[in-house]
Specification:
By secondary structure, the protein is of the alpha+beta class. It has helices spanning about 1-55, 75-85; strands at about 55-60, 70, 90-95, 100-105, 120, 130-135, 140, 160-165, 165-180, 185, 195-200, 205-215. It folds into 2 domains: about 1-55; about 60-215, Beta Barrel (Sortase, Chain: A), CATH 2.40.260. The N and C termini lie far apart (about 80 Å).
């Protein structure tokens, strides 16, 4: 009888020890699994961000220090406009600020901020998959300050671009400033088709503002 009690206690001990080990493993594995998932997520985000960064654009050789023009230059701008013979290939429209302005081809001599909303040479056209259509224009209070009201835009506001009989719709997703250095760094999601607008920062003589729109 005493021997049977010892065997029973031994079996109970083994069963108890077994469940103790299982409990410890479950207790440890839960945070480990969570940690593993967090590490994997961080790795995926890092890889994704790297792919985006590789597609970011730095525009050089544009005179971003002169994107703001004063009313003193109005008459000269009007004279330039009267002499020009535009052949627009498309139009930018932002209903919220009542902006509608045509643009000429990148190769046109009138693709110049002294005449028009200007396509950057690094830009792709709106029909390119995952492309970035980059436009620049003056701000300020002059006749050619086509981007003077961009500062009124908020995230979620929409813009459209008409090009080759098609209309492309975009939504504003990012706005940021950079110092006027003659260069512009464009940070965008390279997996999406984007529209980028560049002008001088409102009431700021030292910075320029970049507006990133994504296709919708």
């Amino acid at each position: 009888m005493q021997k049977e009690n010892k065997n029973t206690k031994s079996q109970l001990f083994k069963v108890g020890f077994f469940f103790l080990i299982i409990g410890i493993l479950v207790f440890i594995s839960t945070p480990l699994k969570k940690l593993k998932n967090e590490v994997f997520e961080e790795m995926k985000l890092a890889i994704f961000q790297q792919s985006i960064n590789e597609e970011n654009t730095t525009i050089n050789d544009i005179n971003t220090e002169n994107l703001e023009v004063s009313v003193e230059n109005n008459e000269q701008a009007k004279q330039n406009d009267k002499k020009a013979n535009y052949s627009y290939i498309g139009e930018l429209s932002i209903p919220k600020i009542k902006l509608r302005r045509g643009f000429v081809s990148k190769n046109s001599k009138y693709n110049n901020i002294e005449y028009n909303v200007t396509i950057a040479k690094e830009s792709s056209y709106p029909d390119k998959e995952r492309g970035n259509f980059i436009l620049m224009a003056h701000s300020g209070n002059a006749y050619i300050s086509f981007f003077d009201k961009l500062y009124k835009l908020e995230l979620g506001d929409e813009a459209t671009v008409s090009y080759e009989a098609k209309t492309y719709k975009y939504k504003l997703t990012k706005v940021y400033n950079q110092p006027k250095t003659g260069q512009v760094a464009i940070y965008r999601d390279a997996t999406k088709k984007t529209l980028t607008l560049i002008t001088c920062t409102h009431n700021d003589d030292y910075n320029q503002t970049i507006y990133i729109f994504e296709a919708i």
